[in-house]
Amino acid sequence: MIRKFILSAILVPFLFLILCTITYATPTITARNAILIDYTTGEVLYEYNAHSVAYPASTTKILTALLALEKLHLDEVVTVDYDIYVPGSSMYLLKGESFTVEELIKATLIRSANDAAELLAVHISGSVDDFSKLMNLRARELGARNSNFTNAHGMPDSSHVTTAFDLAMITRHAMSFDLFREIVSTVNLQFQPTELTPNMRIYRNSNRFLWGTGSRNQMNYYGNYVDIKYDLVDGVKTGFTNSAGQCLVSSAISDDHRLIAVVLGATGTNIYTDSRSLLDYGFLNYRLVQIADLNLHVTDAAVLNSESITIPLVTENSLYKALPREINTYEIDKKITVFEDVSAPINKGEALGRISYSYNDEFLGAVNLVAADNAIVKLTFWDKHGRNLKYLLAFFSIFVAWKIFVEYVRNKRRRRKLLFSKKRKTYNKN
What we know:
Layout: H1 2-24, E1 33-38, E2 44-48, H2 61-71, E3 77-79, E4 98-100, H3 101-111, H4 114-125, H5 128-141, H6 164-174, H7 178-184, E5 188-191, E6 201-204, E7 218-221, E8 224-227, E9 233-241, E10 245-254, E11 257-266, H8 270-285, E12 286-292, E13 297-302, E14 310-315, E15 319-324, E16 333-338, E17 351-359, E18 362-371, H9 381-429
Antiparallel strand pairs: 1-2, 1-11, 3-4, 5-6, 7-8, 9-10, 10-11, 12-15, 13-14, 14-18, 16-17, 17-18
Helix pairs in contact: 2-3, 2-4, 2-6, 3-4, 4-5
């Protein structure tokens, strides 16, 4: 008994140390390309060949759906007015059928329907080629600089390429739409029969992170076989072609901290193993910290040419940062800079300074300091010197009045003397 106790006392801390080392270690990725970013800040937490060009397969549809959300009304009805056929995953649209934009977006993301994606593209731009131009323009606006999209669905094309980083940037923006987040987290989708398709269309999300349980949905995760389903994951999109391999963009959230992982060019269930490794690595090693609050009063600035001696400065916006868990937020350094020669006029919200944050000389971010008060008007000459002029005018008025009074008294005395002199001369003559 004592021997077992001693053995346990030795082995338990040792095993705990090993588990911690495995848990917090940099993930081992089998895929060709991978990246992990923080959703709120866009910071890259891990990358592996993240800027190398790769085939995106059906993860392309993230951008297609995003453009549909941005360009179209959800209740807008789209009618198939031509014979549409795209190989691969499809909802088998027939000429004459009609669906709302929202239904087509759901089919594009949940069913991964190539024909639904193409129908949206043609409806938005008139042709697939013109829609591809729109895709590339929007991608560049979102920071995806190394992508070139030639279709709306991701079917093989040697010119249809992207990077893990680019897909992360596109997905980050797409996840800002409530409906997008709702759709990519949906497990099952069904469409009622139409006149041309008498059977109900029933589809299940291709992302097994959302539903994969049981013996046929297991993966080897650090030596243990576990269900692919991962409760932290709430999207986003799978993809596969022979040239692209297994592709997956994942979103997961824990304690209000959302991460986005992109894995391209994996094989088999490794796509889920790699993706979960990235997500777990992010959650175990980083936490989302609000470094600065919105409208936080930081300091005051002296204002020249104004009745106000100082004006309060507040933070223009909040600032978040994905920080390693070992960092104590109390050790973050702050540097406040107020611009020189701050003078009126000043409008509320005008940037008059800056506060910077750093940790161990590593820059974390900065926020503008803006005027908190309403507009401060520049003083006119009368504003600056009016009081003194009033005093001077009052003094001058008193002085003039006194001079007038003195002159009046003197004139009165002169008249008296003159009158007295005349009377005396008259008296002497008599």
